[in-house]
Structure formats: C-alpha cells, structure tokens
Amino acid sequence: MSDKLQFVVDSALSPLDITIRSQRQTKVYRTLPDTCFVTIHEMQSFDTDPPGNPEPSERSLTFPVCFATALPPGTCRRFALPNGEELAIYNVNGEYYATDNFCPHRGAALSDGAVTGHIVECSWHGWRFDVRTGECLTVTEKLRTYEVMVSEGMLLVEVS
Prior knowledge:
This protein is mainly beta. The protein folds into 2 domains: about 1-35; about 60-160, 3-layer Sandwich (Rieske Iron-sulfur Protein), CATH 2.102.10.10. Helices cover about 0% and strands about 40% of the residues. The strands form 3 sheets. It has a 6-stranded antiparallel beta sheet with strand order 4-12-11-7-6-5, with no helix packed on it. A 3-stranded antiparallel beta sheet has the order 1-2-3, with no helix packed on it. A hairpin with a 2-residue loop joins strand 8 and strand 9. The radius of gyration is 28 Å and the shape is extended. The relative contact order is 0.15. Residues about 35-40 have low confidence and may be disordered.
C-alpha cells in the first residue's frame, strides 16, 4: 500500500512552516522567505513510443587499421580510435578479431600479452580472454568485441 501524503501550511505555526503527514509519520519543515514551492504528484509510468517502433540504432563507424600483411598469424597489435580508446587487433590463423585493449583487472594493454590460438593472456596477471567473444576464462569479466573485415588487403574495424 502506498503512503498518501498531505501537505498543510499551518498558519498557527508560521506561514513559513509546512507540515507533511503520511500514514507513517508527520514532519514539520521550515522554509525560507522567497522560496519556491513545487507540487508533488504520484509518478505514472507510460510509454510514449507507439508499439512496433524499433529502437534507434547506434551509428557505426569503420576505421582502417593496417594492411593484413602487417599483422602476421599469432600476433596482436594496438589500434587507437579517434576518441582515445584503444583496441587490440588479433590475427588467429588468418581470422581477424578485435577487443578492447585494456584488461579489466588492472588496465594492462592486452596487445602486450601472449596470443595462443583464440586466447590472449594479460601480461600483468595472467587473465585470459577468448578474442572471438571477449569472455574471460579466468573470472566472469568480459571485453567488448568489434567486427574486423578485410577489404582489398586492408584490415577495417567497425565500431558502434
């Protein structure tokens, strides 16, 4: 059951005192001269979007990273986005993947870690991540992943 509030200006006390009564308690508040009062209404939740409207999609951008030949199989490289964030780009036997570059544990650059198959290991404390999914194999953390494409020999990463 919700509390019903009653707001009373009690002129016997002072025109600057407001009493707020609910089913549970009564409180008197002293206000200052020349203050603004607001009316409080019970909040209602309603959906302003008509049914069937899709969520607005995020705008994605594609950035050239490097030539595919510059990233040999079993290696990883750092890639800085224009907003200052960094990605780690991986070549796993000719398949390319991208994740956030920083380990969620202490912020070490994953591009400095060892890549073995689809797993990158953080060089600081050994946390291991699957570069395909971003799943951490050590704890329940997860990295963001990004799509990597190859076009005319150039690696491109899509960021939304």
